[in-house]
Amino acid sequence: MLEYDFMRTAFLAALLVALVCGPVGWFLVLRGQTFASHALSHVGFAGATGALMFGLSPLTGLAGGALGAGILMGLAGERVAGRDVMIGLVLSVAMGVGALFLHLLTRSASAATALLFGDILGISPGMLGWLAALSAGCLLGLAVLARPLLFATLQPEMAEARGVRLQVLDVLFLALVAIATAECAQITGVLLVFTLMVAPAATVLRLSLPPLGGLAAAAGLALAEAWGGLILSWETDYPTSFWIALLGGAGFMLVGLVQRARGA
């Protein structure tokens, strides 16, 4: 399997993406903002298709669209929380705009499949360099924000009293989520971002590990699911995103069953 260049590139891409999605997803689930990655991926889809129309890399449009939406969501703060109808309409419009852009493209079928469901085996060495740069920047930003972000997540009133600017923190964190979402979409596609952004983190949080252990475990589990999906895809010829989604769901359910058995 590893004799092929495209497989080695796919494994490296999965490593870079998983190391970001696990820790970012851990904070995302802990803060109760899992809808954000779903929303940002849909808005990023419109940006990616728009970039394709102008001959640019879809990763550029996806990251730009998701980043802009993340910053706006952070600035809006509590005003968008709980407004399911507004969020649903924005997501629908974003997907509709993306569908229009795809309709105007001559290679819409292949582009739509890659954007919606991912194409990890089609990642080029040049794309791998961009993923490495985005992952390094995202992990560095998360390392800087981790302590105040955890404080603001667990004790927001006390954190604000101590001088932590909650809105600024929320904007910066959602910007990191946008970058992680753009990277994750290269592996799973915009429709299955939850599989790598949320499933590993939600599974690890059920184990009640301390913060550093939880962050490391989330990254490790995301990597295991991504690499496991690649291996199973090679053996079965089924899509990688399908196996990643199946492994994520199975891990979450398994931990729940074990906890329930121990409680009984």
Offer a few descriptive terms:
264 residues; mainly alpha; ABC transporter involved in vitamin B12 uptake, BtuC; 82% helix; globular; ABC_TroCD; membrane; ABC_BtuC-like
Kindly report the average pLDDT value. Answer: 84
Helix content: over 70%
DSSP, total strands:
0
Distance between the termini: 44 Å
Main CATH class? Mainly Alpha
Our Rg estimate from Cα atoms comes to 18 Å
The major beta sheet can be summarized as:
none
Tally of domains: 1
At the fold tier of CATH, the topology name is ABC transporter involved in vitamin B12 uptake, BtuC
- Low-pLDDT sequence parts: none
Question: What's the order of the H and E elements?
Answer: HHHHHHHHHHHH
> How many helices does DSSP assign?
12
Query: Structural class of the helices, strands and pairings?
Result: mainly alpha
**Which CATH architecture is right?**
Orthogonal Bundle
Protein name: Metal ABC transporter permease
Family: Belongs to the ABC-3 integral membrane protein family.
Subcellular location: Cell membrane; Membrane
Main location: membrane
